[in-house]
């Protein structure tokens, strides 16, 4: 009881002093929960582990602070910075600035990430998951893998882990063919794609985004991605081996707030993981633990297991709060995930300004239709499910 009260006090104090509701206060609470529960401390990565502060670039400093959950020194989201191109694609002015070409990439990607309903699309969700499946093959103990583009360059789409990512793989190949000659690498296209996609979902985070990763066409080791039938301890151990601690894993699972599964149960293909697919709210959290969700809401066994784990409870509740939860995914962990396996993090360049601006509130125009879909009998890829996938109005 005592710990519960002290957590609430921490949260309230944080809330009153914070300029970005839903952002810093979550971080503070998270960092205190992580400390109190003796969840292993957040770790630094690669060159940031060894370089003295005096040798860090501004980007190196920022990422170091982000990884250490120091929000004064490294806020993980940026809602305001807008990059303006100095000239047309291919012009000398544009070539002179790393982010210029990325602005053109971001604008093109954004057109297919948001549908007419304002919700984000299948391709947007696909690239977020792709970002995870490219980078998440890294292991701190065994090495190999990481955010290196090998998912596409070494055709990892053939693996069962990656079922469902076929369409985004094809689109990503087209993008690479178009943008590589302007200097874009595959690893960066994937990770920039993921953050551009996240912010294209209404209420989605505007995650600080970096470029400059090296590509690799060496296949990443197999068996490094999670499966829905693993128990919580196995999942926690798997992610800890990627320096992602339990609290961070829980924040990352929040990505399932936008998704609609296809292959986990093909007889229910198109069924969403919460009642608002394509919207980056926090409903995924309370709905995963509720017995009273609409019948179409399809819960992954792994999400339920993680939610029920004793050390998850407080964070699951924290992330369920619409005031505090939404930024959580971004804040803590996507940046870490997106640089796993990168050797010289200190050499990356920040291009957050090229991202679309965040849509901070969203009211759907087809609430009634959505509700009746969610209560309808599951039919694989029903007409409504397909419209939802495409971000169309029901
Ligand atoms: C315990 C860990 C995880 C497991 C077992 C898991 C499993 C799954 C499964 C089975 C699907 C449905 C695929 C399909 O049937 O089409 C899915 C979708 C998705 N996952 Fe996860 N996932 C995990 C963690 C994550 C993380 C860390 C992210 C964050 C980046 C993520 C992002 C997504 C997204 C965005 C989708 C939707 C993809 C789409 O709609 O095409 N997942 N996940
Ligand atoms: C956060 O970073 C600032 C600036 O680098 C530093 O002065 C401060 O000690 C850090 N705070 C924590 C809790 O590490
Ligand atoms: C891929 O796109 C096609 C055409 O839009 C669609 O019918 C199919 O369901 C998609 N498949 C996957 C696995 O995303
Ligand atoms: C990419 O590889 C080159 C050559 O090994 C290295 O100098 C550079 O620092 C690497 N970049 C990153 C971001 O790790
Ligand atoms: C949308 O967000 C803006 C700025 O955050 C706020 O002023 C406005 O009241 C919100 N609108 C609705 C309908 O919630």
From TrEMBL:
Heme b binds at residue 256. Binds 2 calcium ions per subunit. The active site is at residue 133. One of its GO terms (biological process) is cellular response to oxidative stress. Disulfide bonds join 99-351, 120-201. Its EC number is 1.11.1.-. Gene3D superfamilies: 1.10.520.10. Pfam families: peroxidase. InterPro entries: Ccp1-like (IPR044831), Haem_peroxidase (IPR002016), Haem_peroxidase_sf (IPR010255), Ligninase (IPR001621), Peroxidases_AS (IPR019794), Peroxidases_heam-ligand_BS (IPR019793). Ca(2+) 2 binds at residues 257, 274, 276, 281. Residues 1-19 form the signal peptide. The record marks 129 as: Transition state stabilizer. GO terms for molecular function: heme binding; metal ion binding; peroxidase activity. Keywords: Calcium, Disulfide bond, Glycoprotein, Heme, Iron, Metal-binding, Oxidoreductase, Peroxidase, Signal. Belongs to the peroxidase family. Ligninase subfamily. This is Peroxidase. It comes from Lojkania enalia. The lineage of its organism: Eukaryota, Fungi, Dikarya, Ascomycota, Pezizomycotina.
